[in-house]
Design brief:
Mean pLDDT: 93
CATH topology of the largest domain: D-Maltodextrin-Binding Protein, domain 2
CATH class of the largest domain: Alpha Beta
Distance between the termini: 37 Å
Number of domains: 2
Shape: globular
Number of strands: 14
Helix content: 25-40%
Keywords: Signal
Protein name: Spermidine/putrescine transport system substrate-binding protein
CATH superfamily of the largest domain: Periplasmic binding protein-like II
Low-confidence stretches: 1-19
Largest sheet: 12 strands, mixed
Order of helices and strands: HEHEHEHEEEEEHHEHEHEEHHEHHEH
Strand content: 15-25%
Structural class: alpha/beta
């Protein structure tokens, strides 16, 4: 999805202004803005002559609230740390792996949680993964300044940074910056240290971005020089020849996340088509479209093998020799505490 800079914010706004992008009326997909890329689910289009109907969201909590409030879709695309919340609320039902031929190709590390798979079934089909790290204007920001996450509290960049309006990504940054690399067992002291640091970082923030297109627009406009970014914002900027770097090896580290699809209960459409859509996503050929359009990796080993030699894999997805905070499912109470504290920080408290 290569957009000219002037079009980025308009496209993002349009995505939220419309309730859905209508196509196949028998399958509604609740998805991240920007994931309606035909190359990712081309097998579904080949089979049914059109893509599904999409309804878009900008962050995981927004999507959950939408479903919890009664919005009806057949499948949704949360990231891993949200799956337990959907389960606890009774909003999803298990998938049948017997109907998913490429299920065994999914790298086992993406299913290594009882939240995703237990004796009741498979609750989550992981499909895509990426990194959260420092995107920066290589013409305005010296490389040495992004060797550390402390660039986000550097007074030289007051009013020149942007952070995601996503509690998970922001807390991953706060924990890493204060020396915590695993959020599975956070102490009160570690939580407070990260919160204090995030309050400092807030003083430098020009804007919190709601989706990668908005982040790319903030940087392309010249308003922001440093952002805590997913791969896709960098891909959009590279496509428009913006001078952007993606620093995943700051000394304190960077973060990773993975997302996938849940099967919503009482979906209004066709269950058969829901499986057709998942099977299209898990085709090895989907990896190239996912990488080119969004910069993400695929959870399927067979799919990743088809793009192993792509430069974008080396730039944004390769193994790195610094700490990595993996955004895996954490304690629901801890996550809620982080979400509430993030709202206070954004409000200036």
């Amino acid at each position: 999805m290569r957009l000219a800079p002037a079009s980025l914010l308009a496209a993002s706004t349009a995505a939220f202004a419309l309730p859905a992008l209508a196509a196949d009326p028998e399958l509604t997909v609740l998805d991240w803005a920007g994931f309606d890329v035909p190359e990712i689910f081309q097998a579904y289009i080949d089979q049914h002559g059109q893509g599904p109907t999409f309804s878009f969201f900008g962050d995981d909590d927004e999507a959950f609230q939408k479903v919890a409030s009664g919005f009806r879709a057949d499948v949704a695309h949360p990231c891993s740390q949200m799956v337990g919340k959907y389960r606890d609320a009774g909003l999803i039902e298990p998938w049948d792996p017997a109907r998913i031929p490429n299920f065994e190709q999914i790298d086992a590390r993406f299913l290594d949680s009882e939240v995703f798979r237990d004796d009741q079934g498979v609750w989550f089909i992981p499909t895509d993964w990426g990194a959260t790290a420092i995107a920066y204007n290589t013409e305005n920001v010296p490389a040495e300044d992004v060797q550390s996450l402390q660039v986000f509290v550097n007074p030289a960049y007051q009013g020149r940074t942007s952070l995601p309006d996503s509690a998970d990504d922001v807390w991953a940054l706060g924990y890493l910056a204060t020396g915590t690399t695993d959020w599975d067992d956070v102490t009160d002291e570690q939580f407070q240290a990260a919160a204090d640091w995030l309050r400092q970082a807030h003083q430098n923030v020009a804007a919190y971005w709601s989706d990668p297109s908005e982040q790319a627009q903030l940087m392309a406009s010249g308003l922001v020089d440093v952002a805590w970014s997913w791969n896709d914002g960098v891909v959009y900027l590279q496509g428009d020849n913006y001078p952007v770097g993606f620093q995943r090896e700051a000394e304190e580290g960077s973060s990773t996340f993975f997302c996938g699809f849940v099967n919503l209960v009482n979906g209004p459409g066709s269950e058969d088509k829901a499986y057709d859509f998942i099977n299209a996503w898990l085709e090895p050929s989907a990896a190239k479209g996912l990488l080119d359009a969004i910069g993400y990796g695929h959870t399927s080993n067979a799919a990743m093998a088809t793009i192993a030699d792509e430069p974008a894999v080396a730039e944004g997805l390769a193994e790195i020799d610094v700490p990595v905070l993996a955004q895996t499912p954490n304690d629901p109470e801890q996550r809620q505490r982080q979400l509430a504290e993030f709202e206070r920080i954004k409000a200036g408290f």
